[in-house]
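Quick illustration for those who missed Monday's session on complexes.
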Amino acid sequence: MITNERDLSIDFCGVHFVNPFLLSAAPPTDDLDMVRAAFEAGWAGAVLKTTSVETEKVDLVYPMMSAVHYDGHRIMGLGNIDLISEHHIDVVEKRAATLKREYPDRVVAVSMMGSKKEEWQELVRRLEAAGVDIIECSFSCPQGSMGEEPGAMLAQSLEATERVAGWVKQAAKRCPVVIKITPQVANIVKVAQAVKRGGADAICAANTIPSLMGVNVDTFVPYPDVQGRSTYSGMSGPATKPITLRTLAEISRQVDLPITATGGPVSWHDAVEMMLVGATTVQFCTAVMHYGVDIIDDLRDGLAFYLEDKGFAKPADIIGRALPNIVNHGELSRDVKVISALIEERCVKCDLCYIACRDGGHQAIKLRKTDRLPEIDREKCPGCRLCVTVCPADALTMVKK
Ligand SMILES: Cc1cc2nc3c(=O)[nH]c(=O)nc-3n(C[C@H](O)[C@H](O)[C@H](O)COP(=O)(O)O)c2cc1C
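Prediction with flavin mononucleotide bound:
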């Protein structure tokens, strides 16, 4: 690890984080020693995996993981059919107290979920008594739904979201309340507004994307195969980052609540992008499940160097910086025409730009007879940028016409 003395601390809902990076509610936070190891490695906080009252039955199924791989890369998207933690509040309240005692400068948040008002409020009281810093409420859990439709997630109902957030807030005397929503709704802003009306302090956005991870074409059984049958997974990991960025941006632009981001980050760069569209802190899960807790070294170093390079004093200075640059389609400039241009020395003559433009663009690229270098027809090229996106060698760029 490169030692960097820069202060990366940030405040979220009045809670001090030594850096903006924490573990989200998932297997890496479902074991005391694993959270200890993460804190030793340098993570600022952890959201302990969603807990419930002792009477809640948590009926897990194995195997529970599958993944989409793409073009030689493992885990573009990770699918899980996990449920909430098997460890109920009696175990989790002790773990939280232990962690707070051992790591007073780290943030111990706990994710919780009830199935009726008394349960939500009992969980809040017990977690506050245990000394947790933040209470995160899972409104996007596939289990124990209190949404309006059978099987729907709580955050898919605006009415239920506002009502349950209100119950939790009513019981919380000390801790900020964060509501974890789902991106699987028609209008994320309305959900965020319901969270705010319920009185919660912040939003965790968002969560996994309901998905069918793939189908075995020999057995006809989708993944994961549980003795010949399957079900829908929640997909996390890199494939979900663009969805998370849009979710964060939409909420940040229209609802005045702090946000902790979750969904897709694997690097400091991803985290910075999430902060630029409004996140205050960034939660990690799949990246840690894939590469381990030590990725925190890269996250801290990368953020520190980015801030240094761009001349920002502290992480809070970058929050929302990209938001003014997001407008509706109708507000985008039509005045300046751009076309693509070749950087000859980089071209590897793979023909991909030519093929893409021929069959999916505007037939504006020809291959020069003498050396097969792409030639852009300035009149035909409308500047769609497809060629730039397919080029594996960064040999194409956009220039003003
Ligand atoms: C195996 C697994 C179990 C999870 N369990 C929970 C959970 O109990 N409660 C919860 O709020 N989120 C749960 N999540 C969702 C993660 O906290 C996180 O929001 C999601 O994985 C997206 O972030 P990522 O792309 O960094 O993984 C789980 C995710 C995985 C992969």
